[in-house]
Amino acid sequence: MVIDPIGAAPPLNDTQIQDELEQRRGEYAIDVGAGTKQDALKRACALWALDAIVQEMQGQYDRVCQAYADLRSTLSK
Question: In this structure, are residues 31 and 40 in contact, taking their beta carbons and an 8 Å threshold?
């Protein structure tokens, strides 16, 4: 679910899944500390998902601001 939350992509094989998880682990290096490697991977995936959500929200905010600026420009003519 973290790799493809919408489920739009075809199913990944085991090698592709491991590659995607390694990419997440590489982007968000989490110290295992007292936890397990699995816990660190879960935290890395959660951070990746949170970043994706925030980026989407920022994109939507940008589109709303642009539409507002366009409307304001049109109405002020």
Answer: yes
pLDDT digit string, tens, across residues 26-67: 888 777 776 788 888 888 888 888 998 999 999 999 999 999
- Determine the Cα–Cα distance for residues 72 and 53; give it in Å rounded to an integer: 28
Q: Residue for token digits 């995607």? A: 20
Q: Which contacts of 34-42 are long-range, i.e. CB under 8 A and separated by 24 or more positions?
A: none
Question: In sequence order, what are the residues at sequence separation of 6 or more whose Cβ sits closer than 8 angstroms to the Cβ of residue 20?
Answer: 3, 12
pTM: 0.64
Q: How far apart are CA 6 and CA 47, in angstroms?
A: 17
State both tokens at 11.
Answer: 């199913």
- Would you list the domain boundaries of the chain? 14-75
